[in-house]
Design goal:
Blueprint lengths: L1 H11 L4 H17 L5 E7 L5 H16 L2 E8 L2 E7 L1 H8 L2 H8 L9 H15 L5 H4 L4 H9 L7 E2 L3 E2 L3 H23 L4 H10 L2
Helix pairs in contact: 1-9, 2-3, 2-9, 2-10, 3-10
Protein name: DUF3793 family protein
InterPro entries: DUF3793
Pfam family, one: DUF3793
């Protein structure tokens, strides 16, 4: 993950405007576009390179090209918190029997549709700023979410895209898949391929 991030920061240096927005978001959500991750959360702000304004200008056009949905979780002045998600994968993740029982504790019900789940998440986000169950939406195994809540300072087995407390081998496999998606996104974006083609190639997941 660190190597992948280093490659990206080198790749994005000096880029501004619409191209910067496209490259930054595509890199960040490439595991979602690749259908390897149910969702990713991004905050766009004018504090850095005018991302809030860029999103308001080019966001709808960008979404039409990537076949990923977006949900606005939180809005402040010049700042947006957005959840980019693959609808089918997010639904299967949330309704999985190992996850829905955990989500019940926070007001999510089996008979809710996806839009209602997202509505509860938005409400919870407003109440707690970053609710623990967000991890389920992001594809983190429920065991690791629960252990993070209850760890009481206990050291994790590994820290990558999340803190791993159980089944390190499974987590490392997922981390590798996420890194592969991000590295592939960098290669495609470096070749100045049209964003719709980048998204299509990433979604083939090979």
């Amino acid at each position: 993950m660190e190597k992948c991030l280093y490659k990206f920061t080198d790749f994005i240096e000096g880029v501004t405007g619409k191209v910067y927005m496209i490259k930054l978001i595509t890199y960040s959500i490439s595991p979602v576009i690749s259908k390897r991750k149910p969702s990713s959360i991004i905050t766009v702000s004018n504090r850095y390179k005018g991302m809030y304004d860029l999103w308001n200008i080019y966001g709808e056009e960008y979404l039409r090209n990537i076949n990923v949905d977006v949900f606005e979780i939180k809005k402040d002045k010049d700042c947006l918190t957005l959840l980019f998600y693959d609808k089918a994968l997010l639904k299967s993740t949330l309704y999985h029997k190992t996850n829905i029982g955990f989500l019940n504790k926070f007001g999510y019900k089996e008979d809710m549709d996806l839009e209602e789940f997202l509505g509860v998440l938005k409400k919870r986000y407003k109440e707690t700023n970053c609710p623990h169950e967000l991890g389920i939406f992001l594809g983190i195994p429920v065991e690791d979410v629960e252990e993070f809540i209850n760890c009481n300072g206990r050291k994790c087995l590994y820290c990558g895209y999340w803190k791993v407390y159980k089944n390190k081998d499974r987590a490392m496999k997922i981390f590798k898949e996420y890194d592969e998606s991000r590295s592939k996104a960098i290669r495609l974006l470096s070749d100045n391929i049209d964003i719709s083609k980048v998204a299509k190639i990433l979604s083939l997941n090979n």
